[in-house]
């Protein structure tokens, strides 16, 4: 590939990676909101409890991704989720 | 993500893709926020207009959710930075 040219395969790879990260993030936002946020909306700020819950939820979500990813790789179902 | 492995032309193309995706993401966030807050705040249909209680609830709901996704983003970025450095 000449310098200054565009390697389309490389771009495509980066876009796939970006899409995957965005997907993980969006699912994490939705899941942790439903698990941590009170539905009463008495105030616009996160409470102390909600904040702690969100931090732990994100950590566990990522951990869960790794655990499941490992399992899938082990079973070698032809899939390579690649982790995050 | 680390874009240093791309040349200028590739970075320009990627930036265009990212811009488009950010726009899509914004629209997706907008409609999901309306869904979420409408469902939790608006339950009374005895009047046509949004009442002051409902309006406060909607504002709080949107505020809270935006703060929530910012916090998730910060933590997510921290975890990614961590796993990135531990790989090197």
TrEMBL record, chain A:
<keyword id="KW-0653">Protein transport</keyword>
<dbReference type="InterPro" id="IPR004217">
    <property type="entry name" value="Tim10-like"/>
</dbReference>
<keyword id="KW-0862">Zinc</keyword>
<keyword id="KW-1015">Disulfide bond</keyword>
<protein>
    <recommendedName>
        <fullName>Mitochondrial import inner membrane translocase subunit</fullName>
    </recommendedName>
</protein>
<keyword id="KW-0472">Membrane</keyword>
<keyword id="KW-0999">Mitochondrion inner membrane</keyword>
<dbReference type="Pfam" id="PF02953">
    <property type="entry name" value="zf-Tim10_DDP"/>
</dbReference>
<comment type="similarity">
    <text>Belongs to the small Tim family.</text>
</comment>
<dbReference type="GO" id="GO:0005743">
    <property type="term" value="C:mitochondrial inner membrane"/>
</dbReference>
<comment type="subunit">
    <text>Heterohexamer.</text>
</comment>
<dbReference type="GO" id="GO:0046872">
    <property type="term" value="F:metal ion binding"/>
</dbReference>
<comment type="function">
    <text>Mitochondrial intermembrane chaperone that participates in the import and insertion of some multi-pass transmembrane proteins into the mitochondrial inner membrane. Also required for the transfer of beta-barrel precursors from the TOM complex to the sorting and assembly machinery (SAM complex) of the outer membrane. Acts as a chaperone-like protein that protects the hydrophobic precursors from aggregation and guide them through the mitochondrial intermembrane space.</text>
</comment>
<keyword id="KW-0811">Translocation</keyword>
<keyword id="KW-0479">Metal-binding</keyword>
<dbReference type="InterPro" id="IPR035427">
    <property type="entry name" value="Tim10-like_dom_sf"/>
</dbReference>
<keyword id="KW-0143">Chaperone</keyword>
<dbReference type="GO" id="GO:0015031">
    <property type="term" value="P:protein transport"/>
</dbReference>
<keyword id="KW-0813">Transport</keyword>
<keyword id="KW-0496">Mitochondrion</keyword>
<feature type="domain" description="Tim10-like">
    <location>
        <begin position="16"/>
        <end position="73"/>
    </location>
</feature>
<dbReference type="GO" id="GO:0045039">
    <property type="term" value="P:protein insertion into mitochondrial inner membrane"/>
</dbReference>
From TrEMBL, chain B:
<keyword id="KW-0811">Translocation</keyword>
<comment type="similarity">
    <text>Belongs to the small Tim family.</text>
</comment>
<keyword id="KW-0143">Chaperone</keyword>
<dbReference type="InterPro" id="IPR035427">
    <property type="entry name" value="Tim10-like_dom_sf"/>
</dbReference>
<keyword id="KW-0999">Mitochondrion inner membrane</keyword>
<keyword id="KW-0813">Transport</keyword>
<keyword id="KW-0653">Protein transport</keyword>
<keyword id="KW-1015">Disulfide bond</keyword>
<protein>
    <recommendedName>
        <fullName>Mitochondrial import inner membrane translocase subunit</fullName>
    </recommendedName>
</protein>
<keyword id="KW-0472">Membrane</keyword>
<dbReference type="GO" id="GO:0015031">
    <property type="term" value="P:protein transport"/>
</dbReference>
<keyword id="KW-0862">Zinc</keyword>
<comment type="function">
    <text>Mitochondrial intermembrane chaperone that participates in the import and insertion of some multi-pass transmembrane proteins into the mitochondrial inner membrane. Also required for the transfer of beta-barrel precursors from the TOM complex to the sorting and assembly machinery (SAM complex) of the outer membrane. Acts as a chaperone-like protein that protects the hydrophobic precursors from aggregation and guide them through the mitochondrial intermembrane space.</text>
</comment>
<comment type="subunit">
    <text>Heterohexamer.</text>
</comment>
<dbReference type="InterPro" id="IPR004217">
    <property type="entry name" value="Tim10-like"/>
</dbReference>
<keyword id="KW-0496">Mitochondrion</keyword>
<dbReference type="Pfam" id="PF02953">
    <property type="entry name" value="zf-Tim10_DDP"/>
</dbReference>
<keyword id="KW-0479">Metal-binding</keyword>
<dbReference type="InterPro" id="IPR050673">
    <property type="entry name" value="Mito_inner_translocase_sub"/>
</dbReference>
<dbReference type="GO" id="GO:0046872">
    <property type="term" value="F:metal ion binding"/>
</dbReference>
<dbReference type="GO" id="GO:0005743">
    <property type="term" value="C:mitochondrial inner membrane"/>
</dbReference>
<feature type="domain" description="Tim10-like">
    <location>
        <begin position="17"/>
        <end position="78"/>
    </location>
</feature>
């Amino acid at each position: 590939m000449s310098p200054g040219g565009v390697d389309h395969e490389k771009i495509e790879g980066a876009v796939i990676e970006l899409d995957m990260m965005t997907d993980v993030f969006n699912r994490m936002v939705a899941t942790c909101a439903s698990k941590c946020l009170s539905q009463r909306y008495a105030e616009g700020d996160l409470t102390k409890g909600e904040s702690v819950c969100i931090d732990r939820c994100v950590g566990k979500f990522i951990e869960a991704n790794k655990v499941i990813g490992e399992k899938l790789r082990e079973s070698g179902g032809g899939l390579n989720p690649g982790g995050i | 993500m680390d874009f240093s492995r791309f040349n200028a032309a590739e970075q320009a193309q990627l930036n265009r893709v990212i811009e488009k995706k950010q726009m899509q993401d914004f629209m997706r966030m907008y409609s999901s926020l309306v869904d979420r807050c409408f469902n939790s705040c608006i339950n009374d249909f005895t009047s046509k207009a949004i009442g002051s209680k409902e309006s406060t609830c909607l504002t709080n709901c949107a505020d809270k959710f935006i703060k929530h996704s910012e916090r998730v983003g910060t933590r997510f970025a921290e975890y990614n930075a961590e796993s990135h450095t531990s790989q090197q």
